């Protein structure tokens, strides 16, 4: 399905990377649902920027009933169901290595919070969208990961572990949903320059990444958003269960 015929839900799209992904789909003519939890004003501004093909909707993606209602409203608004889901929402996390919790102080509640943000929210969106996608014999799920679980230059124990689990979930769902024409993939960025989540990262860290990366630069949200478009596009018609690292070559598989 061409991008301009898709109905795309981007979770956590009120700001940062999610907003950039929403803009990228909007630029290609897709219908875009901009999900937000608390960033109402920013989400509505992004929707206005994209135009008539976008609308902002509040939902807590950790709550299955809230997610189901969001899908219902999206279908009602555009007159057809969601075809593409980008699971991008980030729950209560800031990238600041100096303030991260280390082994002796981190607790299961910290892990649980990140698992709810990564795994539970993805489970909710997949369960809400699967029936319509299977009926259309078309669906695209793109989960947003991180290069940190493969190369933990900063060991954010809770966040990195939840994203590693999300890759496993990505591959399991790709296996189950493939016969219905639903592709499930992951796009993993590194530290992005800059988003609200990375604003607390010292400039010296960005300098280290820049110096140690083959392309000699830090990846931007717009550059990562382009990779997300690939997995939604017809060019990826034979790709599922994959994890594409988009970090300028810092981590190589």
Q: What letter string, H or E per element, gives the SSE order?
A: EHEHEHEHEHEHHE
Main beta sheet: strand number and arrangement?
A: 7 strands, parallel
- Helical content (DSSP H or I, runs of 4+): 40-55%
Number of helices: 7
Mean pLDDT: 93
Please report the distance between the alpha carbons of the first and last residues. 29 Å
Cα-atom Rg, whole angstroms? 17 Å
Classify the beta-strand content into a percent band.
15-25%
What does the oligomeric state look like here? Answer: single chain
What is the general shape? globular
Folded structure, characterized:
- The chain has 253 residues and is α/β, with parallel strands linked by helices.
- 43% of the residues lie in helices and 15% in strands.
- A seven-stranded parallel beta sheet has the order 3-2-1-4-5-6-7, sandwiched between helices.
- Helix 1 (16-27) packs parallel to helix 2 (40-50), helix 1 packs across helix 7 (221-232) and helix 4 (108-136) packs parallel to helix 5.
- The two termini are 29 Å apart.
- The mean pLDDT is 93.
Question: Would you summarize the structure shown here?
Answer:
This protein is of the alpha/beta class. 43% of the residues lie in helices and 15% in strands. It has helices at 16-27, 40-50, 64-78, 108-136, 157-177, 203-212, 221-232, and strands spanning 7-10, 31-36, 54-58, 84-87, 139-146, 182-189, 243-246.
């Amino acid at each position: 399905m061409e991008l301009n015929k898709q109905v795309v839900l981007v979770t956590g799209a009120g700001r940062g990377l999610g907003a950039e992904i929403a803009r990228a789909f909007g630029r290609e003519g897709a219908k875009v649902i901009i999900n937000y939890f608390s960033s109402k004003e920013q989400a509505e501004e992004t929707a206005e920027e994209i135009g008539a093909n976008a609308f902002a909707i509040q939902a807590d993606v950790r709550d299955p009933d809230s997610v189901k209602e969001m899908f219902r409203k999206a279908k009602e608004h555009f007159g057809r169901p969601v075809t593409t889901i980008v699971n991008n929402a980030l729950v209560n996390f800031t990238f600041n290595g100096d303030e991260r919790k280390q082994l002796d102080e981190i607790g299961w509640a910290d892990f649980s919070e990140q698992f709810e943000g990564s795994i539970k929210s993805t489970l909710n969106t997949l369960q809400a969208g699967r029936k319509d996608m299977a009926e259309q014999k078309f669906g695209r799920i793109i989960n947003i990961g991180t290069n940190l679980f493969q190369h933990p230059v900063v060991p954010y124990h809770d966040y990195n572990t939840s994203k590693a689990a999300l890759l496993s979930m990505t591959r399991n769902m790709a296996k189950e949903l493939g016969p219905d024409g639903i592709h499930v993939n992951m796009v993993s960025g590194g530290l992005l320059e800059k988003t609200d989540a990375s604003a607390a990262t010292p400039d010296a860290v960005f300098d280290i990444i820049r110096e140690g990366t083959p392309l000699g630069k830090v990846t931007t949200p717009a550059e990562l958003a382009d990779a997300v478009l690939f997995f939604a596009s017809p060019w990826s018609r034979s790709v599922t269960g994959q994890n594409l690292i988009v970090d300028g070559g810092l981590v190589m598989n």
